[in-house]
Amino acid sequence: MVDLAGQYNKIKNEIDAVVLECIASAEFINGPAVSSFGENLCRYLGSNHVIPCANGTDALQIALMALGLERGDEVIVPAFTYVATAEVIALLGLTPVMVDVSLDSFNITPEHIENAITPRTRAVVPVHLFGQSCEMEPIMEVAHKHGLFVIEDNAQAIGSETEFEGRIRKTGTVGHIGCTSFFPSKNLGCFGDGGAMFTDDDEIAVRLRMIANHGQAKKYYHSVVGVNSRLDTIQAGILNVKLNYLDEYSEARQRTAAYYDDAFDDVEGIKIPIRETRSTHVYHQYTLQVPETLRDDLQNHLKEKGIPSMIYYPLPLYRQEAFRHFSSDGFELSATEELCKRVLSLPIHTEMSCPTQDYIIDAVRSFFKSHGQI
Q1: Fewest CB atoms within 10 Å of the CB: 72, 191, 298, 352?
Q2: How far apart are CA 65 and CA 67, in angstroms?
Q3: What is the per-residue pLDDT across 237-264, written as a single tens digit (0 to 9) for each?
Q4: Helix or strand (DSSP H, E) at 220
């Protein structure tokens, strides 16, 4: 699904140099590369504060901890997303309220959010799924109207841009807090685990830093209960190098996606990913929708030809055993149900060659041709 070795080989000399520099310095925890990466990411995002942490799940958890929510408070999340989004909510004793998404964009909508608001609702977590922004302007209008916090889950969309109040903003910088992951396969990935939070709010930034550092602003003086969540110096050094290439990586993914789009345009059984007019798409995943009666057969057909593919996600959050006790009764969830039966993601990455992509395309087209779909 990704070619991390090929990506590394292109920038090997730069990566090796910063890794050796970090090792030679022996400043493995909170070394200078961590603060410089935070500053560089601030400039890239146009955000006032970036707080690095150990991983994307920690970023979401710390963000929730910084907002003063109380046990039982409700947090609205999309039902069609990775488990981490809801997992941290439940872990903190909050109540995840799982709502439907758009059948076209895969993202949560302002209408679904507003329909789920109760007197206990305190926050909403829009997930910019697969690399494209949610409708942040109307979502923020709903949030302001009801006094809700907004935490953007930007783990799959770093580098994407969205139009907000007449300006172009990077995803993750519109809400009260943005969170991201630097898991190796992410568009901006390190060589291990890593994550970050970003905010324009000075007070929230102070709380995020404290919570990520055992609840202390001054060593051995703990103002709040916190966690231990740090980005390693070596990983920060690697990310400093790769951040310089992030826009180039996004463009490579966009070219690959456009090539797929053209190749599948005449295939009756394929719905290609839409491109929202108010957002750029950085294609963390290239996700097709195909008839549910053909999806598993298509995946097996690709597997036989040595082509990987993934189903993101086969089961809605509210059907996961861990979350069945959180009621979704009364919500219309038809899009989520349909997507779980129809989605299939094809390989997409920065090192995709034309012969490789042509081989994938030919395999997909031959399958649909054999089923009378071309």
Answers
A1: 72
A2: 6
A3: 999 999 999 999 999 999 999 999 999 9
A4: none
